[in-house]
Design a protein that fits this description.
Blueprint (H helix, E strand, L loop, with lengths): L3 E4 L7 H11 L6 E5 L2 H13 L2 E8 L2 E8 L6 H8 L6 E5 L9 H14 L7 E6 L14 H9 L3 E5 H6 L10 E3 L1 H10 L2 E5 L1
Helix pairs in contact: 1-2
């Protein structure tokens, strides 16, 4: 089957993923090679292909990345699909778009948010996914006062999605220490799948 090649260099998130999704939705099953020019797009495209049943290989090319996806045999949905399938029961998604909680005093706000994140484990299995965007992505980088709490959540099975566009905006992409770099398509999709969404923005 002939290989398809998409040049997505220069496209802002989530457009590279949307272009690939369009092909996959049309029933594209052949090998796909996608060219991107930044780390956030590389992670987003790779993860989308894996979740769509493709085996993924990444190679550096012309200062960017060439991501090749090959459809896996029927019945083999890969680790990403298995992770999604393991989720059951009530699914709560928490959307955090700030590095402070409340208004009035910034130092107090930072402490309150740190306490909030440290207490999330008390939600137990209901806590399914945490999304960080805008200033919230600063919580997932080196030096964050809540980094250990977020790492503990992911180790317990909670999904942590960190907005790639936001990391790029704050020039923090290479400082990220926990979670999956994601895009707006992923965020919206997970909000649709959730039984409950709690927003802190």
């Amino acid at each position: 089957m002939p290989s398809r090649k998409l040049d997505c260099r220069g496209l802002a998130c989530p457009h590279p993923v949307l272009k690939i999704k369009e092909l996959v939705d049309q029933g594209e099953t052949g090998p796909l090679t996608v060219l991107v020019d930044n780390l956030a797009a590389k992670e987003n495209v790779s993860r989308f292909l894996e979740r769509s049943g493709f085996m993924v290989k990444v190679a550096e090319q012309d200062g960017g990345f060439a991501i090749t996806g090959t459809r896996q045999p029927a019945g083999d949905k890969g680790p990403a699909a298995e992770k999604g399938a393991a989720t059951a029961g009530s699914r709560t998604l928490i959307l955090i778009g700030t590095d402070r909680l409340g208004t009035g005093d910034e130092i107090l706000g930072a402490r309150l948010l740190a306490n909030f994140i440290a207490t999330l484990k008390e939600m137990g299995q209901d806590l399914w996914c945490v999304v960080l965007l805008n200033a919230g992505v600063k919580l997932a980088v080196s030096g964050s006062p809540v980094l250990e709490s977020l790492q503990a959540l992911t180790q317990s099975g909670v999904m942590l999605l960190v907005c790639g566009t936001c990391l790029n905006h704050f020039q923090l992409l290479e400082e990220k220490q926990v979670g999956e770099t994601t895009n707006m398509l992923d965020i919206v999709t997970h909000m649709q799948l959730a039984d409950k969404v709690i927003s802190l923005t």
